[in-house]
Specification:
The protein is built from 7 helices and 10 strands. It has a domain of 79 residues. The chain is α/β, with parallel strands linked by helices and 257 residues long. The strands form 2 sheets. Strands 6-7-8-3-9-10 form a 6-stranded mixed β-sheet, with helices on both faces. Strands 2-1-4-5 form a 4-stranded antiparallel β-sheet. The structure holds adenosine-5'-triphosphate and magnesium ion. Adenosine-5'-triphosphate binds next to strand 2 and helix 1.
Amino acid sequence: MEQLVGVVVRDVIKGYAAGSQELRVLDGISLRCQPGEFISLLGPSGAGKTTLLRLMAGLDRPDHGEVVYIDGSSKRVDASEVRVGMVFQEPRLLPWASVAKNVSYGLQGRAKAMNRHEQERAVRDALELFGLGAFSTYLPHQISGGMKQRAALARALVGEPDLLLLDEPLGSLDIKNRLAIQEVLSQFAGTRTCIMVTHSIEEAVYLSDRIYVLSDRPALVKSEIHVPLPRPRDRVAPGFSTYARQVIRALGVTPAG
Ligand SMILES: Nc1ncnc2c1ncn2[C@@H]1O[C@H](COP(=O)(O)OP(=O)(O)OP(=O)(O)O)[C@@H](O)[C@H]1O
Ligand SMILES: [Mg+2]
């Protein structure tokens, strides 16, 4: 579809079977991402962030409550009309397929409207965007962990998703690559709806319009921080640290010393 979509999570409960018991991971969580917004989710390990992203991707269903897609006038959009791009916490590349082939799988429904030449070009552009142009014929085991993660990003983006869900996508990148990919992601702000799980406060403040700080499991919204800083953002501007401090406070982390 052409227009931007957002996501509404309403009173969602989700548990997993743990022997004869249930492990309640989400217990009535509600949050919202407006069309075109860039949202970050921060919270402790094991809180339920990946579980939440999977529900927003439509990969799992809530036990209770609902996850709905909305358009710019808050009207419901059917899930079948929404192209979701997801970058999982681990890159999940197919081991027998080249980097280019792996990325081409991300074209999904978009491929139907493209001829072979256009498809190849889209894959090539995505590989270039993530600095993988020279590695298109390599197999996943022949590239580094950070390159695998970049290939997973290229695969998610080549399909031009309406909704991009990112689960700690920059975790295994070195600093230079991390900053470079943050620049790529920052260009999506306002033009693509992104929801990103990250453990980096700086990354969240640099990229997000809004940050949700989640509690320990079962994850609830502990705090919601708006980041109205102009873009492009400056990490060393005084305003930047103001928001970083708000996030630190919301996380309940007390600086040592
Ligand atoms: N498929 C599953 N079956 C059973 N339990 C699960 C399943 N997926 C997740 N869990 C449990 O749900 C809880 C939340 O997991 P989740 O992966 O959502 O956390 P997270 O916030 O993404 O953590 P991290 O920051 O470490 O990635 C954990 O206790 C985990 O063991
Ligand atoms: Mg996770």
